[in-house]
Every structure is written in C-alpha cells, then in structure tokens.
C-alpha cells in the first residue's frame, strides 16, 4: 500500500515537472514570435520611410500617390495572415460575444477610423516631403534656405510629423476603445477585420483625393522624369507598399 502511494506521488511529480517544462517551451516560443514580429514592425517602418523619402528625392511629386501606397497594399497581408492565424476551429479565432454591433455601427466605425487613417497618412507624407533624413539641420541651421526647401517648409514638415505621430497614438487609443466598448472582442478575426476595412476605407478616400486633385494626370510624366528610371519608379512604389504592410502585419500579430 505504501509503495503504491509512493508511485502515485512520483507520477504526480513527473507530470508536474512535465507541465512546467511545457509551459517554459510555450513561453520561449511566445517571446521568439514577439521578437520576430517586432523586427517586422521596425524593419517595415524604417524601409518604408527611406523609400518614401527616396520617392521625393528622385523626382516624385504626388503627395496623394505617396499617401496611397501607405494603405493600398493591405491585400498583401492575406497569405501571411492565414499562414500564422489560429485555426478557425479554435475559440480565439471567433470568440463570439453577446450584443454584437449592427452593420450600421460597423460601417460608421470603419469609415471614421479609415478617414482618420487617411488624414494621418497625409500628414506623414507632408513631413516626409519637407523634412530631411535628419532634423538636425532644422535645429542648427541659421540660414533661411537649406538646399531647395525653405526653412518654413522644414517647420511645416516637423509640425506635420509630430501631428502624424500624435494622431497615430490617438487612433490606436480610439481603436482599443472600440474593441472594448463597441466590438467587445479582441479576437483574431475581429482585429483582422478592423485592419482590413480601415485600410480599405482609407485607400478609397485617398484615391478620391488623387483624382479630385488632378495629380493622376501627372503620373505618367512623373514616371518618365523619375531620375532612376520608370522601372525604379514602379519598384519604389511597390516596395513602399510592401514595407508598410510588413509594418502593419508585425503590429497586428503582436497583439
């Protein structure tokens, strides 16, 4: 009888040790994924910023086009989203909750956040156009002109960049509030839907601005006049769109 009790105790201890070991493995995997997706965020944002600056440096002039590539590549996320997403049979994928918002509420929510995103991207574009790679010249320069851009434009670019950063933070706060108060869920599907529809609305709004401003008429001429050639022009826009989606994908998967 005593031997049976000792065997049972040993079995429980082994199972407990196995559970702790399994938990550590899960934690290690989680931290590896966090590091992986954090790398996506930083590499995507830095690459997109450099390519966006290169677009203006080499002769690109369309602010609407430079803004469009920040959101229009959202469809590129689909293959990677489904590769890393939880199985649709797992509860964290759907996580249905009571009081699901109506279609009208969702349309208003996605439209509002999409317009907000479009405006924030436009502010970022203005900052990218007017600011140099480093803002050191803005702080240390005493001259009225620096290169081909006036000091006043540097100041406008600085203000737009700060406003874009503040707007991005505000939008994240509003989005989190929407998850808690309106959507009442942070499941993978809900977050993914929010990201896709928000980028879709933003892209539609930016496209409307592109056509309304008449800048679309100058795209062919801009492509021909691009210093690095037409192929580089296309590669720059595509690369910028991909880089921004790498950033968005990493940010989404870190949630």
Helix content: over 70%
Describe the largest sheet.
2 strands, antiparallel
Tally of alpha and pi helices: 10
Order of helices and strands: HHHHHHEEHHHH
Mean pLDDT: 80
Give the low-confidence spans.
Answer: 135-146
Spatial strand arrangement across the major sheet: 1-2
* Structural class by secondary-structure content: mainly alpha
Approximately how much beta-strand content do the residues carry? under 5%
Number of strands: 2
**Span between termini:** 52 Å
Overall 3D shape: globular
- Radius of gyration equals 24 Å
Subcellular location: Membrane
Transmembrane segments: 30-52, 64-85, 106-134, 154-179, 191-213, 233-252
Main location: membrane
Pfam family, one: PUNUT
What does this protein look like?
The chain has 255 residues and is mainly α. The protein is 77% helix and 2% strand. The chain has a two-stranded antiparallel sheet with strand order 1-2. A hairpin with a 2-residue loop joins strand 1 (145-146) and strand 2 (149-150). Helix 5 (103-130) packs across helix 8 (188-213). The radius of gyration is 24 Å and the shape is globular. The relative contact order is 0.18. The model is unreliable at 135-146 (pLDDT under 50).
